[in-house]
Amino acid sequence: MDGQKRGKIKLTATVMLICLLVWGSAGSCREAFAFVGDTEKAFGLNGSIRTLFFLLDRDEELPFSGENNFDVLSQTIARLTAAGKPSEFLSYEIHLVQSLTLSTEKIAGGGLSGYDNAGTDHVYRYRMLDASWDVLEKDKSLATLAFDRFNTKTSFGWGDITVGRQAITFGKTYFWNPLDVFYPLDANQFDRDYKPGVDAVKVDIPLGLYSGLTFVGAAGPKVKLGTDTGVGNNPRDSSWYGSALMGRFFADAGGWDISLQGGKVFGGWQVGAGIVGDIGPVQVRGEFAQFMALSSDPLPLPLQGDLVEDSFQAVIGLGHRFENSLSLDFEYFYNGAGDPDDLNAALVRMSYGSSLQMSRHLAGLAARYEFSPLVVGEMGAIVSLSDGSCQLQPLVIVSLTNEMDLLVGATFNIGRQPESYSGATADIKSEFGTYPTVFFAEWKYYF
Predict the structure, then answer these.
(1) Which helix (H) or strand (E) holds 148?
(2) What is the pLDDT of residue 101?
(3) Which domains, and CATH codes, for the chain?
(4) Which label site among 57, 91, 293, 432 has the fewest CB atoms less than 10 Å from its CB?
């Protein structure tokens, strides 16, 4: 097996991890004064520039470690955000993003190498418009220009209607959000100030000060597995299978925030509920979701089973902030979509978005402490209770100026590592043992 083949599974898993990290770092929702105009008036322009640097520490003794002991990936992102309120009843936002990615390893197209028909051509769920252009596309460099958000909101006496590509967030738990069907943040995402948009129509109807209804219709393609499937992997090939039609009710009951939601989502139907409240000094969070799958493509050979299956997911979390600024958050996640008995199949489902993790039972702990107003330390830990592997992520956030931050950290993955299987693919032995150690730094500047 040549060096490129040997590194495929490990590199693919790593790229999955990095893409999720980069997604969460590709833009900013931080409040800032517009450097041109005023976003509270007819037109205002804000922006940000950030550079991310990743160093991947590989073990050359592993069968899927690639040719290098260390791989390096960097990404520089410039974002312009135009927004305004031409009238009291009309507002808009447009995000234009230019990114440049450089890597010492090949930046491959979609797919889990070793399963030749497992690619998805980088087509995202709930996007019916292709608003991105590859300005530069080479083996180890990629430059992309994209409109990540473009929407208008019209306000009426009874509520608001937002049309276009927009960020939509459901759920309030920390590590895992089974209710957040529109690009949920990854559990190990170190920078959570941004979320990609989906092509949708959203209707918000307030029923009271802390209660209301939200309806979302989002169109998108099926996103079939494989690069030779023809219809299904082009954003304009929107289908009922790949689209969503959701309703959500939220209210305050006795000091507890409750929510109920249900409807059509990608690949099936979902019903769920969430609750957030305080018991004494401890905040309690919970999310519960049942997914009922429509017909599904089978997993790529030699794997057995369907790509999308019925599943139940539940998250229970506890949190507390102490007077000395230390805050602790703990969550337990039951992941009915995980498959600890066949982690190879679970990896494909997770990469496709059918599961939030590979394991069935997981626990997460996050600690945050303010050493000073300018320096904050964080420690995240996720443990697979199914296979005993774990992930540790220390992080330091330094505020250099009011508009400039520096993040420095690492992701340590501990667990049984993949072994060779049938000479071409990997036999995955644990969830977090699948990934290498990653050291990272991010510089970001808002203007």
Answers:
(1) strand 141-155
(2) 93
(3) 3-446 (2.40.160.10)
(4) 57
